[in-house]
Amino acid sequence: MWVWIAIGVGSFLGLSLLMGLALAGILGTIGRQISELQQTEDWTTLPPTRARKEVKEEEEEEEQLQEQAKSAAPSASSQSYQTLPRATGRHRP
Fold first, then answer.
1. Which range among 1-10, 45-54, 62-71 shows the weakest confidence by mean pLDDT?
2. What are the strands, taking DSSP E only, across 4-63?
3. pLDDT tens, position by position, 37-51
4. Which pLDDT value is given to residue 93?
5. How large is the C-alpha radius of gyration of the chain?
6. How many CB atoms lie within 10 A of CB 1?
7. What is the spatial distance between Cα 79 and Cα 82, in angstroms, rounded to a whole number?
8. CA-CA distance, 59 to 47, in Å (whole number)?
């Protein structure tokens, strides 16, 4: 009789171990696939290399133009400002 109990407990532990390993394998596969999806999503959301280079070039050109505009513009102290008449809401024909 003790032999049958030992066989039952042994088979229960063996099946539990096999089921745990099978479940771990399935969850491991799911985890790897999710990781791959996240990595490919990162790549798919990036702009193309050419577009990134064009954006950088445009930003550099804008910075150069702003610097040129700042150096070419007269200073605020020497600049005279003209006041405009107040808007009254009436239009002159």
1. 45-54
2. none
3. 888 777 777 767 666
4. 52
5. 37
6. 5
7. 10
8. 16
